Every structure is written in C-alpha cells, then in structure tokens.
Amino acid sequence: MKLVGIVGTNSTESTNRRLLQYMQQRYGKKVELKICEIVDIPVFDEPEDKTAPKAVQVLSEAIKNSDGVIFATPEYDHSVTAALKNTIEWLSYTTRPLINKPVMIIGASHGSLGTSRAQAHLRQILEAPELKALVMPNVEFLLGRSLQAFDDDGKLVYEDKVKELDKDFNEFISFVELTEKLTVNSKFFEENQKFSWDQVANGEDM
Predict the structure, then answer these.
(1) Closest CA to 162 of 4, 6, 23, 15
(2) 206 falls within a domain
(3) Which of 89, 123, 174, 206 is the least buried, fewest Cβ under 10 Å from its Cβ?
(4) The domain that contains 135 carries what CATH number?
(5) Where is the NADPH-dependent FMN reductase-like domain (predicted)?
(6) Residue 61 contacts by C-beta under 8 Å, 6 or more apart in sequence?
C-alpha cells in the first residue's frame, strides 16, 4: 500500500514532520509512506487556464498515485496554517487529486490540547464540493506536548500515544482497503467527480 503524508506547514522545525517521520519508520514494513512538503507551493492566484505550478503538479501526482493521504496539521489561531490552506486551494482549483481519496488527519502541537480545532476545520475543508476527500470518520489523533514527545532517534516516547497511533493507523489501513472495494466500478463515485459548474463553463448543456 502506498500512502502520502503531507506536512501541513512550511516550518523547518515542525513536530508534525517528526510525527510523519516516526510513522514512516514504525510502519515501514506495512506500507510505503512518502512524506511531501508544501514549502515550495506558491501563493494561490486563480490562474485563468487552471494550470497548476510545477510544485503543485508534483504533489498532485504523488496524491493521485497513492492509495491514501495522511495530513499532519499544526494549529494556528484555532485553524490550519495559511500554507496548508493555500496548498489545498491550488489542488481544488486545478488538479483535484483528492476526490474519493481516503484521508487520515493527525496533528501535533506544543501545548497540551493538541490540534482538535484545526483538525475539525481541515475535515470541513476536505469535504468541500471541489475536494470531496473521503476523510476517515471517528478518528482524531492529537499529540500534545510535542516538543518533548520524541527522543534523539525520532521515536515517540509517550507509550499511551504509541498505542493510540497504532490503533488509529490500523483502522486507516482498513478504511483504505474498504474504500477501494466500494469505489471500484461504482457509478456513485464516478458521478462524484463531475461538477455542474465545470459543465456550464465548458458550454455543455445541463
């Protein structure tokens, strides 16, 4: 199984990146987890031809070629980072690789409360009409006190969180497998990729 992990910030010292790196190491025998950065994504400017910049195209291809996506998001002012929202705007306006794609949301924060508000907001964003990601329900992995959460080898030191992450990740694997079975040859999911406003813009009769 091929998964993509998206670091939801352009910070060079993000503990969300460290969380994805830990997952890459811990679950490497189960899945192939490719970690993608968003630091090179330019500011969204709504190009008339809807052509994605190179950095967006590279990320989009990685998502399209994956079986599922893991978003690791910090929380800034009760929401996701501007860099992550900017990236998602590019994807929704141009290539739309997240349609029908299984998604898991995780988050690490320096404080004790985790990233619950940001995760809730990200879930709402990813379920928007032009994104239509299949966000795994009933799972919210929150890693608080993340500056102290990893040892020098990059391993998560909170045993309760290790067990929780193992459980959540295994559930995501099952969710990806189930989604694949549901989407194969399904007319519902084929229709899910059509947009009435695109047809009008292209001069098609509604």
Answers:
(1) 23
(2) no
(3) 206
(4) 3.40.50.360
(5) 1-145
(6) 97
Rounded Cα–Cα distance for residues 109 and 123 (Å): 17
123: containing domain: 2-201
Global confidence as pTM: 0.90
Residue 160: its H or E element: helix 159-183
What confidence tens digit (pLDDT) does each residue in 71-110 have? 999 999 999 999 999 999 999 999 999 999 999 999 999 9
DSSP state for residue 184 in the 8-state scheme: T
Residue 18's closest CA among 160, 154, 164, 161? 154
How far apart (Å, rounded) are the C-alpha atoms in residues 191 and 184? 13
Domain count, the chain: 1
Q: How far is CA 4 from the centre of its chain?
A: 8
Question: What residues pair up with 34 in beta bridges, in sequence order?
Answer: 4
